[in-house]
Amino acid sequence: MDSTETKKLIGARIAIARKANGFNQDQLAEEVGVHKQTISRWESGKRAPNGEEVRLIVETLNCSADFILGLTDTLKIGGGND
């Protein structure tokens, strides 16, 4: 998987987890401490979050980093950070 495909995968996973938690892009941006445009860029695959941003996303959305990073296809909300 190349860099572009990886960014798109991560972006799609962020969008799935965000929606599963009932967040809109503005709300997630506020919680993570970034601009709404940053969330949009992540979700569209134009850029990817850095390690600290992934940690904040995982904490905010209460999902696993493995799901966000595409290491598992199972989204577990509230199950702890695997």
TrEMBL record:
Domain of life: Bacteria
Key words of the record: DNA-binding
Matching InterPro entries: Cro/C1-type_HTH, Lambda_DNA-bd_dom_sf
Domain HTH cro/C1-type span(s) in chain numbering: 14-68
Gene3D superfamilies with a match to the protein in the record: lambda repressor-like DNA-binding domains
Database matches in PANTHER family: HTH-TYPE TRANSCRIPTIONAL REGULATOR XRE, TRACRIPTIONAL REGULATORY PROTEIN-RELATED-RELATED
Protein name: Helix-turn-helix transcriptional regulator
The organism of origin for this protein: Collinsella ihumii
